[in-house]
Model the fold of this input.
Amino acid sequence: MQTQPTPQNKSFLKELQKQAGLYARLMRLDRPIGIWLLLWPTLWGLWIAGNGHPDSVVFIVFVAGVIVMRSAGCVFNDYADRGLDPQVARTKNRPLASGDVKPFEALVLCGALLLIALGLVLTQNTLTILLSLAGAGLTLIYPFAKRFFVAPQFILGAAFGWAIPMAFAAQTGEVPQLAWLIWLAVAIWAVVYDTMYAMADRADDLKAGVKSTAILFGELDVYIIVLLQMILVLALKLIGDQAGLNGWYSLSLFVVIGMMIYQYFLIKDREPEKCFAAFLHNRHVGSVVFIGILLSYTLY
Done:
């Protein structure tokens, strides 16, 4: 004989589902763009460090780590910005800004995610574990950087690229010069796409007193982005040369250049919606670079 759920049980399950949905939004699981922007360069590093054949355990740990650390970073960022987000049109409905989630809940959730990340990294070697501590520090510093540092995107870039030296440490037990070159390329790329993101929020950020490269660069923003993209392509070319990647990778860089030209036409008039679209478009840039790397190791 089956027992029908009571009204109290239904109410509890409904509330539990609602709360889980709020936590998922707080972790930005409904907006996975950050996961892709972290995952693609992580895969660049894993494939190059593993010479086209990354260790399966390392691969699983790093993919899971990207999701967990991006989620933790979003939660902590919203905790730090809980007084600023209500002043920005795009962020005023976030769970902390709207009051649907309490600050203490966010801290507990962030702590739980960091413990999961710790459990993942403890499966790796000592060098990887030590590097992960620096990466966690960058993740926790960034949300406050926009209050006192005129170019917080550089700190974000350092954080988003930190999986690269970790991937090499996990795969090879060392961090060679090539790893730092890839890290630098990823950092430059992050400055590019997060400046596009900041261009969409510039008016609100100025009112709230938040600093960004979009504000720092001012009327030169589009030109500096194009310059950084040119440096990025050069860095990617050097990476391909040092890693011994073949024509498939070179072809992917030509595609990337075309994508950057498209992004220029999106941002040139500085319309917020188009700047945000250019930011989102960068997930495709990362995928094209990875496809080039993958094909280089697969099709000789």
